[in-house]
């Protein structure tokens, strides 16, 4: 055994203690850590010939890389709908690496059953019924990809084509309809061979990011009975607007389509008694995307994909080899996602749900919503600021009467917050997205004070 590796094995308890102490130091400093860090130019160094051992590598990381890491796990990082990692989720993530399970089969581990239990808990959290089965994937992009892949197979079923064997070209013209799709949907369509241009955007309700159900029905009727895919939104990226899921699902009585719902973070509205109506009808979807490293506050990367048609999911993703189980009954997980090997992403979510339950996560969601409303109220009173939408859930979308990139750069350089740019109905704008378990209304006030100072 390499001498440094042997020494690290002998000293492993001390190494883990050192890593724990450093992690605790980082987490304790999050309230004062800059939300965004300036990124200098780094010249790559050569691969070490011998290496410095784990303790040396930790020291090198602390000196060279850690100072440039953002405070994205902290309370005022309001970009990209980024959550943090609750204490229980962090424990689960550390143990994920410790046990290092390849969570795909029951042949050698109970890890698959733990994932099944976690999926059941999540199904209950979001108000989905037993007809929906679920599987962990890396994030919303892959969750949307898996859901749309199953929808692609459903199109083949309707048209008498085995897409998994014959290829997407056998489908002929594929139509995908959506009102305000997330960019990951276009990416998924590209990866699936359907093509970005196959997505047809449908008119929205006036002043909204929600699709007009009458316009959607007209688009479906124009297909003359040819099956399609509809991507509905439960929480749009700019203003967290919600399509009327029940109205859309009702259109299946007259028109054939696969209903995929992108609920990456909007699904968590189900936890708020005041906002649960926004996801009414989610259980009617054929497939659902939910991103867990957003509002569940588990470490990257973790998402879940739900579907009513596990048989079609197996048709797409099954893997046949002499050393693998056949996809019969309750199939092993390598038959359900693009990955053959995968880490036990479910463990961090299991820990978070076991530790805090539905009530604990409801409190996080409710507090984040209150903080978003607080920021919206404060900004509405700042001269030169205009809200571009009501604060519906956890995102504040606004514009200013000056250069948006310059403002965002000033915010980032202050270290007090991090916000991201967008364009809403053609207007350059700013998004402040609240999803972190540490965030309080006082953090919203600090961001409002900063923006007021920069804009006056």
UniProtKB/TrEMBL annotation:
GO molecular function term, any single one: aromatic-L-amino-acid decarboxylase activity
Cofactor: pyridoxal 5'-phosphate
Record Pfam families: Pyridoxal_deC
N6-(pyridoxal phosphate)lysine, modified sites: 294
Keywords for the protein's UniProt record, in alphabetical order: Decarboxylase, Lyase, Pyridoxal phosphate
GO biological process: carboxylic acid metabolic process
Alphabetical list of InterPro entries matching this protein: Aromatic_deC, PyrdxlP-dep_de-COase, PyrdxlP-dep_Trfase, PyrdxlP-dep_Trfase_major, PyrdxlP-dep_Trfase_small, Pyridoxal-P_BS
Presence of the UniProt keyword Lyase in the record: yes
Similarity remark: Belongs to the group II decarboxylase family.
Name of the protein this chain belongs to: Glutamate/tyrosine decarboxylase-like PLP-dependent enzyme
Biological source species: Actinoplanes teichomyceticus
